[in-house]
Amino acid sequence: MDSAEFRRHGYALVDWIAEYLAGSERYPVLPRVSPGDVRAALPATAPEHGEPFEAIVADFERIIVPALTHWNHPGFFAYFAISASAPGVLAEFLAAALNQQAMLWRTSPAATELEEVSLNWLRALLGLPDAFEGVIYDTASISSLHALAAAREAAVPGVREYGLAGRTGVGKVRVYCSEHAHSSIDKAVMLLGLGHRALRRIAADERFRMRTALLRDAVAEDRAAGMIPLAVVATLGTTSTTSVDPIAATADLCRREGVWLHVDAAYAGVAAMLPAYRHHFDGWEAADSIVVNPHKWLFTPFDLSAFYCRRMDVVRQAFALVPEYLETAEGARGVRNLMDTGIQLGRRFRSLKLWMVLRHFGADGLRAVLEEHIRLAQLFAGWIDADPDFERLAPTPFSVVCFRARPQGTALTPAELDTFNERLLDAVNASGDVFLSHTRIDGAFALRLAVGHLRTTDAHVARAWELLRSHTVRLAR
Ligand SMILES: *Cc1c(COP(=O)(O)O)cnc(C)c1O
Question: Could you give phi then psi for residue 178, rounded to 5 degrees?
């Protein structure tokens, strides 16, 4: 593609994207397709001869777009709502063109140092001390994997050389988290060779927070049995209900026990920027490692996970391995090479989008959007609480509301109530105007409304509410 052609197609695509970002509401949030539709619309093999870009774009519009779930739609309330903001999109465009591979400082001084600078900016916005060094990974799952790998490195002598399998003299290890911790913690212990059974899930209280007393007992019991408590994962904003584990008490316990504390704040971490929400974060500065996902609630296009660690030297101890062909003079002089802080060698230029997003919005702009999202969620929670046909199933500390319909005048068994709410969710989502997801809370099927998209307004939340109410009336008939 020569540069004249690139300009032509590039301008056309910029127009397309501008219209999409402003008008994604034209599309149903959930696509009206069946499994296999996309596959069936495409040839089984790649073309033998190159095709004109117009034809490719035409097929993109005809086949791909109708099968998209529109995460960038203001009616997207499922899972955790996210936004690819315009400055973030433009940064990705540039990053693709620059094609930086920042394994070594030398292979991209700019990407290496911008990662440091943008993460330092974010760290200050979050109110974390300078002792936390940051690194960008793709997802929180990978951030937590690295946290637990570092904890393993710190707790098990020689694990890098000898591993865990078949070793004598090393007791069983244990990792602790609440029953509401994310499944990525399970996957990390499996992958690290600890075994799924090494993960001890601690029961939560009535507000879905890990019970510190039970954690303390579990650690003591395991120590008495000769096991090695490796790490505690506290969640700040759990995935189902966004509950907040008692961070300060957990940090105290970890300090006394000499156990690595990892705080999973993938979604809620950015709320540390809001003074009114700081109390949730008391004690997180004592953690060994923290993960916060700007791709979740900081308007940065997927993917970008910020990992902060007080002991990045341990991460390096676990992962640094420099083959001869990657030796550099700067490396020998102690310059930061990003390949040393993780599994992957190659790294893309993710910091560019974080830097552009932070500069575009400014701290006050980011705080204003976060506050607005929390306001919208609280508004919706108020409607739920005021309506006798609905009930809230969890506190709403941030921008996610967990609730269900419980139509008055119907005597539904718990199982029937679950089915009722499943049907309600399907009906609401079939509208194409909004998309909500579900979870289970204390065994009950719960609906979740997560506010997090930049262009979500009162009208979108009101539309969700209107659909929920009208379908509840219809289904209860
Ligand atoms: C979303 C989420 C994750 C997983 O995030 P990825 O970046 O998709 O891996 C982990 N923990 C919590 C608490 C989350 O909310």
Answer: -80, 165
